[in-house]
Specification:
The protein is an alpha/beta fold and 192 residues long. The chain has one domain: Aldolase class I (TIM Barrel). An eight-stranded parallel barrel has the order 1-2-3-4-5-6-7-8, surrounded by five helices. The longest helix is centred in the N-terminal third of the chain and has 15 residues. The radius of gyration is 15 Å and the shape is globular. About 5% of the residues have low confidence.
């Protein structure tokens, strides 16, 4: 049986951030994937604008507690507070407007992650005091067909200059992860 993505990324982790972060996607049921994540990984609830988001968040929060996983809510500080999340994940656009999320994270001593698609966004994540950034898309990905990808060399260059831990996102799987250099871990929709 081929190794899983979680098994492949263990060697990337610098023990300061989760080695693997599952990013939820409304097209994919996250529950089975969360159940397969090893302790110490993280789950980011996205499901933007979905009516079931809060109910799914409660379910994921409970499952993350049982499995010793971090649980973050994307772009919704209020929901993160209600669900007693471990932190907040900001999309790149939300990070440009960030102020209140940082106050909530700092008050709770929670985690802050920020999405980035280039060096300017990585610098912004560092200035915001993010614990880590997700840099994407590293490889071609089914969720964004035809979108240009960074490739492993550009990813490594930008990640090494970022000044904070950077997780690779986009097209990263058990085999493509081998090409990564400079990654503190991996974020994926199909993780687990």
């Amino acid at each position: 049986m081929p190794p899983t993505l979680a098994e492949r990324v263990r060697c990337l982790n610098r023990r300061t951030v989760p080695p693997l972060v599952l990013m939820t996607d409304p097209r994919v049921d996250p529950i089975p994937r969360v159940r397969r994540l090893p302790p110490g990984c993280a789950v980011v609830l996205r499901h933007y604008g979905r009516p079931e988001r809060a109910a799914l968040g409660r379910m994921l929060r409970r499952l993350c507690r049982e499995r010793r996983l971090l649980f973050l809510v994307a772009n919704d500080v209020g929901l993160a507070a209600v669900l007693r999340a471990d932190g907040v994940h900001l999309a790149e656009g939300a990070a440009r407007r960030a102020a209140r999320p940082l106050a909530w994270v700092k008050a709770r001593q929670g985690w802050l992650s920020v999405a980035a698609h280039g060096p300017a966004a990585l610098r912004r994540a560092r200035r915001l005091g993010a614990d880590w950034a997700t840099l994407s898309p590293v490889f071609p990905t089914a969720s964004h067909p035809g979108a240009p990808s960074l490739g492993p060399r550009r990813f490594a260059l930008w990640a090494c200059r970022a000044g904070l831990p950077v997780l690779a996102l986009g097209g990263v799987g058990p085999y493509t992860v081998r090409a990564l250099r400079g990654a503190a871990g991996v974020a994926a929709v199909s993780a687990g």
